[in-house]
Amino acid sequence: MAIFIDLLLNALVVGILLGGFYAALSIGLAITFGLLDVVNIAHPTILILGAFVAFVLNSQVGIDPILAGLIATPFFYGFGWLIYQLYYNSFEKSGETDSLRGLAFFFGLLFIIEVGLIIQFGVDHRLVEAPYIGESANIVLGEEIDVAIPYRLLVAFVVATIATLAIRAYLTKTFFGRAVRAVAQDMMALRLMGVDPIKVKRIAFAMGVATAGIGGALMIIVLPIEPSVGRLYIGNVFAIVVLGGLGSISGTLVAAIIIGVAESLVSTFFGPSWAPAVSFGILLLVLAVRPEGLFGKTAGGH
Amino acid sequence: MTRLFNKKMRGLVFSAFVAAAFVLSAPFATTAEAGSHAKKPIKVGFSMALTGALAGGGQQALLGIELWAEDVNKNGGLLGRPVELVYYDDQTNPKNVPGIYSKLLDVDKVDLIVSGYGTNLAAPAMPIAIEREMAFMGLFAMDINAKWKYEKYFSILPAGPKPAEGFSQFWFDAVKKFNPKTIAVIAADAEFAQNLKKGAVANAKAAGYEIVYEENYNPKTPDFTPIVRAANAKKPDLIYIASYPNGSTGLVRALAEVGTEAKAVGGGMVGLQFAGIMAGLGPMLNGILNYDFFVPEPTMNLYPGASELIARYQAKVKAENLKVDALGYYLVPFSYANVDILGQAVNAVGSLDQDAIAEYIHKTAFKTVVGDVKFGANGEWEQSRTLVVQYQGITNNDLDQFAKAGTRKIMLPADIKTGDVDTFNAYRK
Amino acid sequence: MRYLFEIVCLLLLVLAFVATQVIGNQFVFFVGFVILQYVVMATAWNILGGYAGYVNFGSAGFLAVGAYTSVALINFLGVGLVEQFVFGGIIAGLLGLGTGYLTLRLRGVYFAIATLALAIILETIVAHWGYVGGAAGTSILPARKPELLGVLVVDRKAGVFANYKEFLFFLMAGVAIGSVWVARWIERSKLGRGLNAIKDSEEAAECMGVPTLRLKLIATTISGAMMGVAGAPLASYLTFIDPLSAFNLEYAVNAIAMPMIGGTVSWVGPVIGAVLLGGAQQWASLFISSELNLLIVGVLLVIFVIIAPGGIVGWFKKSR
Asked: Which member of B23, B95, B123 has the closest CB to residue C244?
């Protein structure tokens, strides 16, 4: 029995830590898809790009991966800015609501980035080195029951939570942040208030992509990364955003933890190979039962 | 929507078809030259893992084959003709293999084929070899002929006649001194690991151990700590692992993070023999009891001739500043022998007749850089010659310590051992 | 002439057969098979995506279902190719039907993500199914001298086809031509008009009395079944199959890119897209490198989606 509790506790702890980490990955998508209704299916791949940037900076220059992520963030912001320009000029400007083309656009982008990474880096798994990787803290709770907290997960969790809370504060407290949330609901009203909605959308999208800089760095801290890993995370990330409810950042955090814990429990008790099916399965379930997610507004207009 | 069936559209579709057909058939239009056969090179074709999980081995294997080609051409080639290597990167992806061998045989028109490195990459080529009735040499492929019983297949793997059991036999011998009762078995869900696992399970049962944990993991698993924890929960005395480089590194890291009470850990972990991986893992390897084929221990005389070849290899890597495994212990002598045997057979038979070549290889005891090789049933070696080594005394991530004796002491076979088996934790602080 | 299209179809089939007798190089058929398979996939995808506007990201899932149904049948009963086609189509069709039911409330992008989720879940299940090889995969050696109704089909000297690849090529040609015929038939029928109405505005269509649910289910079933049929011979063609190759995202991308590049409005687009894009990829993998395949697809997809939304067909239409 003690063994079971031990396993359970460890799975829960890892799950929560993992959940925080997943939140950092999904927050960018929560903004671009949740708030702006732009289906950036390339988001996970951009995360991988961020991971590789962190890898390069870490292995060539020896910078701590988190620092590398922070350095990369403004570049990703610019990258996101450019992508949105292209996207907007090609699709939204003409007023076409054919989401098929937008989807295809990001799909193509996904492939260009992924293949570009493969050509540049090959298909080998890459890791970063940092003092907190490979160590864990051991908390003894009782006979035979001890919980190990791997530092790499702890670090990712802490950074992710900080980022999430910061973004949430920005979106709720600042004028611009609230403009971002408004732009999805009522563009006309925003215009009437003298704010250019296109500019707002562009900056918001760029912000979403910017999170990929730090998110990617966290990814490669937590596990070895190779270019095609992004695809596995598509489901994960979308599941979290949808489960949390489009338009709700705190919902994203909660959903991320739910999925993190679910995956961890399945991993421990059924084997880690079932883990990817968990997030996708939850996604399907949510879509079938309550498409607006936990905290989202009731469906309509999507 | 519907008014597109005018002549213009249909003409376009048809011309697209024709154009595509032309474009695609153009390269194949260059059919056989009727010129004289003298000095026309003999092409040896294969796929090789130059990128991907097994690249650490594939690249050194390729260099071994290139060294062979150099030597052969210096001695007049095969049948008086120069040898030319034709190869493609299979990216450690089994899916690419059938296409590559199709290309080799139909487009490049190679005369001889050998396999790439590793079970997973050699197995998919078997049906093509069988279909074209070609002799096929398998490099480090675990028991891939058991299913087909193809009479023209030959394996270069010193695991012996029953490769799956022979591979792990010594490991199980080595751990007897701990008087173990229980064992956990962890294996990648991939051909090699599964074949190896069957052998390990058979050995475990024969020794009377209870299998308290058995888990197949998806090769793409990123985090192995759940598996190690789950295994530890059953308190096994032994942990046998059959893994490929990703899993091997992941499990070593997980073990470093989580720890274990098991007395012996390791067994069939591929990748821990690659220079880059050894250097990367460093002290995390201490205590692991694993298989190996060639280590720089003073008693290593199982393969006379290998040391010189390895020295040549290392010199070449250094001189040309090549980005490959700096040590070359694991694969170079064997990949050399792989093609060498084929070459010897071709010269002895005097032609490229695949049936005659196969027959010759079956009945001959070859002298190769890895010693005497005689093939038995199913094309496997008649004798097992794997080592069991224990990693120890590794202090940092420098590569040099692995080029010297002492970091991988030989436990078995007994006549060349340089150390005694101790528990996993004895070597970990 | 009323049946001009059908006559051209038959002619092409004959042409395919003649090609197998005349061309000696097996590699041509190896490549040809891939392109024909993509014709089927693109056409199948377009029925749901182009006509009805529902984007399927999980095309690889249906293809793999067809492939693995074949593997299971081969292991279990040792059936021949024709049966594999039939069953692969049936099972994948059922899957399509089920997918339709599950996603009946979803619109637009949710449907797309749901299909992707389905594909990954299927892949995980198959990877655990040891009977068909699990994650390790399994090798298939096609029957050395298969017979059909007493006629020796494949044999180096005496068979109708000299080797298995030619046989597969011919069968696939038949399937490809058949699928294009089906697509064209749908396009010109009430079903096609209904699907188009759904694409333009599902709510309006419903208001007008179009049985949207039923039509969507028919479309997903047919589309899924076709993909399953395309996947059925995959194991025999590759002689090796594992979840990575069967569920490869390449299929999903190409199934989308080919119709989008060729043109989604009619049956012509997917065919053009498949031939040109597929041909370009095979050529690139032969002469340049295999990674460039996907790079080409990605770049072309993005370019076409931006510049030529109607695909090649649309571009031609405009320039008339």
From this structure: B95
Q: Which residue of A has its CA nearest to C57?
A: A107
pLDDT tens-digit series, residues B117-168: 988 889 888 888 888 889 999 998 887 888 788 889 998 888 877 888 888 8
pLDDT at B205: 93
Q: Which of B123-137, B173-187, C25-39, C160-174 has the lowest mean pLDDT?
A: C160-174
B93/C244 Cβ within 8 A: yes
Q: Which residues of B touch A117 (CB under 8 A)?
A: none
For residue B30, which of C166, C15, C27 has the smallest C-alpha distance?
A: C27
Beta bridge partners of B42: B83
Instruction: Give the minimum alpha-carbon distance from B187 to chain C in angstroms, rounded to a whole number.
Output: 11
- Whether the pLDDT of residue B196 is over 70: the answer is yes
Least confident of A168-172, B105-109, B231-235, C315-319: C315-319
Domains of chain A: 2-289 (1.10.3470)
| Helical residues (DSSP H) of chain C, grouped into ranges | 4-22, 26-46, 59-76, 81-102, 108-127, 164-187, 190-200, 202-207, 212-231, 234-238, 243-246, 249-262, 268-287, 291-307, 311-318
Query: For residue A296, how many other CB atoms are within 10 A of its CB?
Result: 20
- Asked whether residue C40 is assigned to any structural domain, the reply reads yes
**Residue C158: per-residue pLDDT:** 64
Say if residue B29's pLDDT is above 60.
no
Residue B277 tokens read as 């991986």
Q: Give all domains of chain B, ordered by start, each with its CATH number.
A: 42-161+307-379 (3.40.50.2300), 163-301+385-427 (3.40.50.2300)
Pairwise CA distance, residues A28 & A47, whole Å = 10
Is C301 a domain residue? no
* Closest residue in B to C12 (Cα–Cα): B14
pLDDT at A134: 67
Peptide bond into A291 cis (omega under 30): no
Which residue do the tokens 């990748």 mark? B271
Contact criterion met (CB < 8 Å) for A105 and C305:
yes
Antiparallel, parallel or unpaired: β B182-188 and B210-217: parallel
- d(Cα C171, Cα B178) in Å, to the nearest integer? 61
Q: What is the mean pLDDT of residues A253-279?
A: 83
Domain of C183: which CATH number?
A: 1.10.3470
B401 membership: H or E segment, kind and range: helix B400-403
- Per-residue pLDDT tens for A138-151? 777 766 677 778 78
Cα separation, B374 vs B368, whole angstroms: 10
Q: Report in angstroms the alpha-carbon separations of A1 from A146, A261, B234, C112.
A: 13, 21, 12, 44
> What are the two backbone dihedrals, phi and then psi, of residue A241, each rounded to the nearest 5 degrees?
-65, -40
Can you state the angle between helices B225-233 and A249-270, rounded to 10 degrees?
40
The answer to whether the CB of A109 falls within 8 A of the CB of A253 is no
Number of domains composing chain C = 1
Average pLDDT in the B219-238 region? 84
Rounded CA-CA distance C261/C257 in Å is 6
> For the segment A104-134, what is each residue's pLDDT rounded down to a tens digit?
788 888 888 988 888 788 766 777 777 777 6
Give the C-alpha separation, B73 to B77, whole Å: 4
Nearest to B303 by CA among B185, B207, B387: B387
How far, in Å, CA of C124 to CA of B153, rounded? 33
For residue C37, the enclosing domain spans: 4-248
Structure ipTM:
0.77
